[in-house]
Design a protein that fits this description.
It contains ten helices and ten strands. The chain has 274 residues and is of the alpha/beta class. It has one domain: P-loop containing nucleotide triphosphate hydrolases (Rossmann fold). It has a six-stranded mixed beta sheet with strand order 6-7-8-3-9-10, sandwiched between helices. It has a four-stranded antiparallel beta sheet with strand order 2-1-4-5, with helices on one face. The two termini are 31 Å apart. The relative contact order is 0.18. The N terminus is likely disordered. Bound molecules: adenosine-5'-diphosphate (ADP) and magnesium ion.
Amino acid sequence: MIDAARTADAHSTEGASAPWGIRLDDVTVRYPNGTVGLRGVNLDIPAGEMVAVVGLSGSGKSTLIRTINGLVPITSGSLTVGERRVDGASGRELRRLRGDIGMVFQNFNLAGRASVLQNVLVGRLAHTPLWRTMVGAYRAEDRELAYEALDRVGILEKMYGRASALSGGQQQRVAIARALTQRPKIVLADEPVASLDPPTAHGVMSDLRRINTDLGMTVLVNLHLLDLAREFGSRMIGMRAGEVVYDGPAATATDADFEHIYGRSLTTDDRLDG
Ligand SMILES: Nc1ncnc2c1ncn2[C@@H]1O[C@H](COP(=O)(O)OP(=O)(O)O)[C@@H](O)[C@H]1O
Ligand SMILES: [Mg+2]
């Protein structure tokens, strides 16, 4: 958590508003085919927290993220982000909600042939009239936000290059800059470093942490490596079969805690350096 005065200051210079918390009360998600993605999940994540979500493949980590941004509807319970109730929201309200939540994915999801700057300006789409995007006439303040975001992740000098020409780590930084350019209230990252080599993964996680500490951003990141969760989470949530089976500090989580979350012994694949 960061102190309120510093957040207010950071946000006045960037023109952003305060980050949001996330609250799930007894949330169950059942997919149309009957598979249960989340089972009775209770979580209260205060604004400004950095949360690492860990669990085996299929444990519900991605479902949790897609539920928070309203892509997957909940079957029962209630879900609130900031002051907004997500369950029962209209299509229009959900689109607005997604404009306020920055998403980062494992495979970057960039337009490879477009420039880095164009990719990052996509973050302003939800806030830009259609005619401006059609003629590429982004406002000066939108460009300013894009430059600031690129600078924050250290790739400002790549701005005119093609996204596809960048390394994996650089592409993920572009994706993070795109999310920041939205001026999000929350950043959700689904396995953002799963396709990166260990040093690069470490660098990208450091960028996400800096966004948390410098901007006071609420960051929830799904991770599959326990040492990254320990190092970068302030809080760790462990999921197994759709349920939260661990919720506590990340730094002090023991190997036994991870074995409890995974329901098996640890292997070298669970650690960054193998
Ligand atoms: N669109 C979907 N339709 C049906 N079942 C799904 C869908 N997406 C995920 N699931 C199932 O929900 C459970 C949780 O999956 P997921 O949230 O993707 O886990 P994780 O991200 O931890 O690997 C799994 O059993 C998975 O097979
Ligand atoms: Mg997943």
